[in-house]
């Protein structure tokens, strides 16, 4: 009985987060094309931040390189879904060893999973580096990964078309499909957070040397989180490609990295709830700022290019000053507990707070 109650309490957070994303999907389904577009982008962003949260939220290491996994997922989906006839035109100079890519073809759902697997392979290859580093060095290493992947994609023209766009990708990402993968990403990220490996990694996040002294294999758990997050971010890239229908390598570099960092930091990079809520809020804010910059709220007078990014950066600075751990801190959204309701009914102290989820993590 006690165990079932614990499972129900643990399931509250992912259920509430999925309900929140379902609400966004519902609005996107019944509203006009613009709202539908914003909803899909927001849901794809949820897939990405849930993936990055599996690593950053548990390890405490801020990653600047997860967009690289997204890029791998997007390019893999392009190769698997662009019609074969068009690929022979787009990639006439494929190296001999990669000639099979011109004939590769898959439905969109298998393509999404295979794209996630491609990103996972990159995660496995780079995991030993991430496992050996920590703190600032680890963050810089993730940035180096992003730069390496960007330059390979930009320079390997015969395979990636370089700075030219990948075109001809069928539009397959719908609101419903994006919602399904957002829900899956939330469940996977939460399940890892509550797993033995996730809890031990959180213990290392709170006190690295105490965890090491307790026998926690910090590097191994960090590598596991890294690989899981790579798969989910690759899935996000696949969905993004299936929505855009065309993209080039510049879509997966510093600008995208900054946008996702704002989402995670604004909501709370140590909390899955914070990452998801930040993704939804920032996606809506970005659309508002885009329209503001285009002059839709200024009587038709467009604002100088870059104003939207400046405002977004200013919002990030304010949040960092006022709430360094983001709006959610280390808390997760959940229903009020019975004890808390009882305290309120008995007139408990207004300043009394419920214990924060994740504030103490068992080693």
Automatic annotation (TrEMBL):
It is a multi-pass membrane protein. One of its GO terms (molecular function) is branched-chain amino acid transmembrane transporter activity. Signal peptide: none annotated. Pfam families: BPD_transp_2 (PF02653). The chain crosses the membrane at residues 41-60, 67-86, 106-126, 133-153, 173-192, 223-243, 249-282, 303-321. Keywords: Cell membrane, Membrane, Transmembrane, Transmembrane helix. InterPro entries: ABC_transp_permease, LivM-like. It comes from the Bacteria. It is found in: Cell membrane. Residues 353-363 have a biased composition (Basic and acidic residues). This is Branched-chain amino acid transport system permease protein. GO terms for cellular component: plasma membrane. Its main location: membrane. It comes from Actinomadura viridis. Residues 342-363 are annotated as: Disordered.
């Amino acid at each position: 009985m006690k165990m079932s109650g614990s499972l129900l309490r643990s399931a509250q957070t992912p259920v509430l987060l999925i309900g929140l994303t379902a609400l966004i999907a519902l609005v996107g389904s019944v509203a006009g094309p613009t709202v539908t577009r914003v909803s899909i982008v927001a849901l794809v962003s949820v897939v990405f931040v849930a993936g990055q949260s599996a690593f950053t939220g548990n390890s405490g290491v801020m990653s600047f390189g997860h967009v690289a996994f997204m890029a791998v997922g997007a390019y893999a989906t392009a190769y698997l879904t662009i019609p074969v006839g068009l690929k022979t035109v787009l990639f006439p100079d494929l190296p001999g060893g990669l000639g099979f890519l011109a004939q590769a073809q898959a439905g969109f759902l298998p393509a999404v999973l295979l794209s996630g697997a491609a990103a996972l392979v990159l995660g496995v290859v780079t995991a030993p580096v991430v496992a050996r580093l920590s703190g600032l060095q680890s963050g810089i290493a993730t940035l180096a990964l992003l730069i390496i992947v960007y330059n390979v994609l930009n320079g390997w023209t015969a395979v990636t078309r370089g700075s030219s766009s990948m075109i001809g990708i069928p539009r397959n990402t719908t609101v419903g499909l994006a919602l399904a993968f957002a829900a899956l990403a939330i469940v996977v990220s939460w399940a890892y957070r509550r797993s033995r490996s996730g809890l031990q990694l959180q213990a290392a996040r709170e006190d690295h040397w105490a965890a090491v002294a307790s026998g926690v294999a910090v590097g191994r758990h960090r590598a596991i989180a890294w690989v899981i997050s790579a798969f989910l971010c690759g899935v996000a890239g696949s969905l993004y490609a299936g929505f855009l229908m065309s993209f080039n390598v510049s879509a997966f570099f510093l600008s995208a990295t900054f946008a996702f960092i704002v989402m995670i930091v604004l909501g709370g990079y140590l909390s899955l709830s914070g990452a998801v809520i930040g993704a939804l809020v920032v996606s809506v804010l970005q659309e508002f700022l885009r329209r503001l910059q285009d002059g839709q709220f200024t009587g038709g007078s467009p604002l100088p290019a870059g104003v939207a990014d400046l405002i977004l950066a200013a919002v990030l600075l304010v949040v960092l000053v006022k709430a360094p751990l983001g709006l959610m801190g280390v808390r997760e959204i959940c229903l009020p507990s019975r004890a808390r309701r009882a305290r309120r009914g008995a007139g408990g102290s207004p300043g009394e707070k419920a214990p924060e989820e994740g504030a103490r993590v068992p080693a």
